[in-house]
What does this fold into?
Amino acid sequence: MNFSVEFITIGKLKSNSPFFALFDEYKKRLKGKFNLIQMDAQNTPAEHQKILDKIHRNAKLIVLDETGKTLPSIEFAKTLEKYQIDSPSTPIQFVIGGADGLSKEILQRANLIISFGKQTWPHMMVRVMLIEQVYRAQQILANHPYHRQ
It folds into this structure.
């Protein structure tokens, strides 16, 4: 399944970052549309409003937050598949907030809040981990051997 995916992120991934090449590699592997919206970190109500303004009205919204659920990759893949079927003309949107988290309004708007575990991860690393999981979800749904159980 080719997902239409959009990441809304705080902070910018710089081309000289060790994570840039890896992120770019997974982005090239994705099938379907992908858009990355990067915003400057401000940790103000205006920053949170800018995030809310980028969320499509009918989008299925997945927020990454330390309070979220941890999902096995197969469950994550099935969730993305369901969201794409439910709203095929709207991208599945992901929000990765800044160091101080996200507002209650953004968390309440989310269809799903996920976490990559109890550890604290650098935001740039989370982007790579997330795009890899989106790619892995595509491979799982295509019955490709990339994902082994």
Summary: The CA atoms of residues 47 and 53 lie 10 Å apart. The chain has a mean pLDDT of 91.
